[in-house]
Design a protein that fits this description.
alpha+beta, phosphoprotein, histidine kinase, two-component regulatory system, five-stranded antiparallel sheet, transmembrane, Helix Hairpins, 12 strands, Beta-Lactamase
């Protein structure tokens, strides 16, 4: 059986009710015990006995009076139903010697006035006072703890048992009505058609405990809307970008199949090969962008950034050699750091590809460590650069700017922006090599 929040609440409230019951029993027990001591006839009889013997000088007369008081105490206790025995009257002289003793005698000397002590395993109320030359001590047995607890339970237990069904019904109604807004919220979510409806619910839950849940769900719907909007925009832009090269591929294939001119066929074959390469490059960049767009948590690992940078530079050499671009590397022998490998590889790959494609004759990859111990990297070139007013715009998808005639897809820097976000890295843009071109400085 699944756990129930309602049952858990009712159980917690019943435990609280049981604890309150125990506290009530304990409080009533101590109150009753105190009242038994205060209402004991020991104080009244002890005071009368002290006044009665204060004028007497001979022990025989004083003991006769004490014996009468002891008999009276036993009679009173029997009338009240406390026939436990153990009542006693003791008389001592001025030197503390026992003159006469009727009933039990405390082992220790007690303080003046009314007090409580244990005697023969039973609680006793004890009153002690000075009556002339005599020290009077009256002991009154009290009911035991077991009997007193049973009496307390009999007094309040019936009321508590009668209240229990009413309490259970009240708790059930309170929990059911209290959880009703949560059930309505669940029904609203269950009725939501996520295929067509992702608008915020904006439910007025009216309860402070439930409102954060509604706000969190609205925030989730917002992220889903943004994710779907990005995916739709990407699909739309990708379809638009692929339409032109695919049409060109179709035209070149037609020329290749139907042209009888050998030179024309060779030119069409070369154009077809370039178009296929561009389409493959665009497809790969779309895959990279989709992979970086995923909202899965980053998976960092310990990397040697110097080795990773050298590897990416070696992979870019064929492309650079074909375009007559010289590549350079400034990096320490080793630079370990925690980062997500795929995001960092994609970042370097697209920065190098962007620098090689757009007019550079020299591209340099730099790697170092700042004063705070955090690594940084930079890709600088000596190409035409990008005007400062277009720096923000150049990270948009399919933006090419003044280099629109180049064979790029306009996705490279958009991929860089996604990789930066995934790495949690900082970007700074400055002039490139020898004051020309552009440099991208990345702080990890």
């Amino acid at each position: 059986m699944k756990r129930s929040l309602g049952r858990r609440l009712i159980a917690a409230l019943l435990v609280a009710y049981a604890l309150i019951t125990l506290l009530l029993v304990a409080w009533n027990y101590w109150a009753a015990r105190g009242q038994l001591v205060q209402q004991s006839p020991a104080q009244m009889l002890g005071s009368l006995l002290a006044r009665s013997v204060e004028k007497l000088r001979d022990a025989e007369s004083a003991c006769a009076v004490a014996q009468g008081f002891a008999s009276e105490l036993e009679r009173l206790r029997k009338l009240q139903g406390y026939a436990y025995g153990g009542a006693g009257v003791n008389l001592r002289d001025g030197e503390g010697r026992s003159v006469c003793q009727y009933g039990p005698q405390p082992a220790a000397e007690l303080s003046e006035g009314l007090s409580q002590t244990e005697l023969q395993g039973r609680p006793h109320a004890v009153f002690q006072a000075q009556g002339g030359p005599w020290r009077v001590q009256v002991l009154d047995p009290l009911i035991g703890d077991d009997v007193l607890i049973l009496w307390v339970l009999s007094e309040i237990g019936s009321s508590l048992l009668l209240a229990l069904p009413v309490l259970l019904l009240t708790l059930w109604l309170a929990v059911r009505t209290g959880l009703a807004p949560l059930r309505r919220f669940t029904a609203r979510i269950a009725a939501l058609d996520t295929r067509h409806e992702l608008a915020a619910l904006n439910l007025d839950l009216r309860y402070a405990e439930l409102q954060p849940l509604g706000d969190a769900f609205d925030a989730l719907l917002k992220r889903l809307r943004e994710q779907l909007a990005r995916e739709r925009a990407l699909i739309h832009d990708a379809a638009h970008e692929l339409r032109t090269p695919l049409a060109a591929l179709g035209a070149q294939a037609h020329v290749l199949l139907n042209s009888r001119d050998e030179a024309g066929r060779a030119q069409a074959a070369q154009a077809l090969q370039q178009g296929l390469a561009r389409t493959a490059h665009l497809s790969q960049q779309l895959l990279d962008l989709a992979r970086l767009d995923q909202e899965r948590p980053p998976q960092p690992e310990t990397l040697d950034l110097a080795e990773l940078a050298a590897t990416q530079l070696r992979q870019a050499h064929p492309q650079a050699r074909a375009r007559g671009v010289q590549l350079g590397l400034q990096a320490p022998e080793a630079l370990p750091w925690q980062a997500e490998r795929v995001a960092l590889q994609t970042l370097l790959q697209n920065l190098l590809d962007n620098a090689i494609r757009y007019g550079a004759r020299e591209v340099e990859l730099q790697l170092g460590q700042g004063p705070d111990g955090r690594p940084w990297l930079a890709v600088a070139d000596d190409g035409p650069g990008v005007p400062p007013e277009q720096h923000q715009q150049m990270f948009e998808r399919f933006w090419r700017g003044a280099q629109s005639q180049e064979s790029g897809t306009g996705l490279g820097l958009a991929i860089v922006a996604q990789a930066l976000q995934r790495l949690g890295a900082r970007l700074r843009i400055s002039n490139g090599l020898q004051g020309r071109g552009i440099a991208f400085h990345i702080g990890l």
